[in-house]
Amino acid sequence: MHKNYSLLAYSAWVALALSMPAVHAAELSPGTVISAENIDRIKDDTFEGHKIGSLLTEKMEWRIRNSGWKLPLAKSKAIPVDPTWLKASQANEGKTRINAETCQVEGWTAGQPFPDIDMNDPQAAEKIVWNWHLGALVGDVSIVPFYTQVLIDGEKGIHAEPIAEFTRYSMKGRLAGEHTQGDGSERGRQLLYFKSPSDMKGLGTFTIQYDSAKVNDVWAYVPAVRRVRRLSGGAWMDPVGASDQLQDDLEIFNARPCWYPSYKLLGKRHVLAVVNSKYPLWNRQGKSAEEKYPVLDSGKPYWNMNNNDFEPREVYVIEANTPAEHPYSKKIIYVDTEFPRIHYGEAYNRKGEFWKFMEWHSYVGKGEDGFRDIRTAGGVIIDFQRNHATVSLIDTAMWRTNPAGVKESDVSLQTLQAAGR
Question: What contacts 420, CB < 8 A, 6 or more positions away?
């Protein structure tokens, strides 16, 4: 009798369970904010057909749960890729190859050298990184007259706000006029100098990047002694002033691809990223921190760029293994599959422990010649081991791409010295 009673009770429970309506995951609406308070509740919900949990990497979810990061969801928008760049990229199909001995991509003239990536290609990861290095949608010339590096202590908040000017000049891969300037040995030039505060004014660097295995030539100008100093060949791995970034961390990956001994393609997936950023994210006329930096959250740890629009983007996930003398043991980078742009990076120390998280927010700009480039609105490099971060923000109204009349001689050591005086 007890056995029959148990069987009847079990049958009734099954019938009740089958009669109950199924619980379906919800499709979240734009404007929903993912946070530590709701992540467990909405992790199985979807946005544009993707499960929320699948749109977050392990470290992204860790930041949300432990570091106050909040991600407002935004509807995906198409990115209008520049047709000149697209045509140049498509022309490279089947014509380019990596020459490991010379550290060059043979057959490349402009655009991304490898427009179609085969996931089964053993060189796929390396080709994606070369696409970023040679084919990023940045224009022939980029001039950023004002950008700030906000240094932030996770407990105390902002403690420094230096302002600098940055210029990038391509010597090869140019899309307007001749593809190559000079004798073909240079890949490009970079000029960086600080405008404030007074004790940093004039301090800066001039860099020549080569289209070969040769390391960058870097000169630093020190205004206090009015002297130029040539830096060592390993300067690309050195820290940038008092910030949390290395020279190699500029826009997450700033090395010649062959300087890293190996790459591994870990897969392809979707993540939440900012490609249609709000801008400006920095108001130079603001008085309070809230007015100056509207993208930043005002609560601890103060560095979270919570007030922007995050949308699903498909990315390649690549593990980049560093040379032995590098401070990191490896970087994990998340590269957009539609065009060469790195949205996130993770850096690990020599013990293999998670060290830094890198996050870059982008938007589509228009050069003075009509070229559509992908610009940086802001970025952050967070050193979780010392609870400190560097937030880079751009005065986007002053940004100029491909302005008329800029020559290679305008981006030189003499220009750096003149700016420093």
Answer: 193, 202, 203, 204, 221, 223, 226
Alpha-carbon span 138 to 167, nearest angstrom: 11
Residue-averaged pLDDT of the chain: 93
- Neighbouring CB atoms inside 10 A of 156's CB total 12
The two tokens of residue 150 are: 């906000």
Angle (nearest 5°) at CA 284 between 161 and 152 = 25
CA distances to 69, 272, 301, 388, 392 from 159, rounded to whole Å, are: 21, 30, 13, 11, 14
Using an 8 Å Cβ cutoff, are 161 and 150 in contact?
yes
Q: Tell me the longest C-alpha to C-alpha distance in the chain.
A: 100
**What is the secondary structure of 89-135 as a DSSP string?**
HHTTTTT-EEETTTTEEET--BS-S--S--TT-TTHHHHHHHHHHHH
pLDDT exceeding 90 applies to what percent of the chain?
89
CB 347 within 8 A of CB 331: yes
Contacts of 257 (CB under 8 A, 6+ apart): 103, 126, 129, 130, 133, 263
83-420: CATH class: mainly beta
**How far is CA 335 from its chain centroid?**
9
- Report whether pLDDT(55) > 70: yes
Q: Which two tokens stand for residue 365?
A: 């700009």
HSE-CB at 19 with a 13 A cutoff on CA atoms is: 6
Q: Rounded CA gap, 31 and 180, in Å?
A: 45
Per-residue pLDDT, averaged over 336-353, amounts to 98
- Residue among 37, 58, 73 at smallest CA distance from 274: 73
pLDDT attached to residue 226: 84
Query: Is there a cis peptide before residue 403, judged by omega within 30 degrees of 0?
Result: no
Mean pLDDT of 137-158: 97
Q: Which residue has the tokens 């209008």?
A: 80
Q: Supply the pTM of this predicted model.
A: 0.93
Q: Are 189 and 224 in contact (CB under 8 A)?
A: no
Q: Are 210 and 219 in contact (CB under 8 A)?
A: no
CB 295 within 8 A of CB 307: yes
Residue 167 burial by Cβ neighbours in a 10 Å radius (0-12, 13-18, 19+): buried
pLDDT at residue 316 above 60? Answer: yes
When pLDDT is averaged across residues 125-154 and rounded to a whole number, the result is: 97
Q: What is the dihedral of CA 26, 29, 31, 35, to 10 degrees?
A: 10
**One-letter-per-residue 3-state SS of 33-84:** EECCCCHHHHCCCEECCEEHHHHCCHHHHHHHHHCCCCEEECCCCCCCCCHH
